## 1
Amino acid sequence: MKNDIVRLGLILCVISLIASGLLAMVNDVTTPIIAAQQMAANDAARKQIIPEADSFEEVEGEFGENVVEVYKAMSGSENLAYIIKTISKGYGGDIQIISGIKNDGTIAGAVIGSMTETPGLGAKAQDQPFISQYNGKSIENEIVVSKSDTGADNEIVAISGATITSQAVTDGINLAVNVFNENFK
């Protein structure tokens, strides 16, 4: 009886070691592939914001806790804009916002990188009717969220039923504007 328990324990240990080794090998193979796909998705988002850019150069530095990355959008040797990825806390979790700010002091556009917001409500933040409201906004005044359109230049109309998500996206874009104003203006 005791020998059976030891034998079964050893068999289970060998199976676990083999499975762990196989999982480690699969992880080693897929990690660079996943990283390349994430880089391609980020490049596509940057290109969507500044389509006239032919390259993007990462800007090194410490820009704050919720700033993930900063890139310069380049056309040849000319710096067109800065692309700043921030994280903001939404209703369903973190939201990654990729914002483009042109050197003339306007927002070129924004793209939602990843989010876990409620489908049909907060997830509408990715849709053009909402996210395109930021395009062309001046960075002189902080952008605010409103439940109705009063026509103010620095105002964004919230998604009905998703005010927390609307505010989170706006907070992420305002953070990007602050980074631009403090470091690149």
## 2
Amino acid sequence: MSVSDESRGRVRQMREKAKELNAAAERSSDPKERQRLKEKAQRLEAQSEQESGMSTGDIYPDV
């Protein structure tokens, strides 16, 4: 398995985990827990975007 394959796998796992956290947040009846889960999902999504950009060599994705 190449480094890029491993990176894509990590990115995919982070995105899947973020989706799971968002789903758990939607099911939560506790507002504080819902907010905590959503924030954790947002951090994972941002991290996956950053890692995805790094794996493609695009360190300035918005430029």
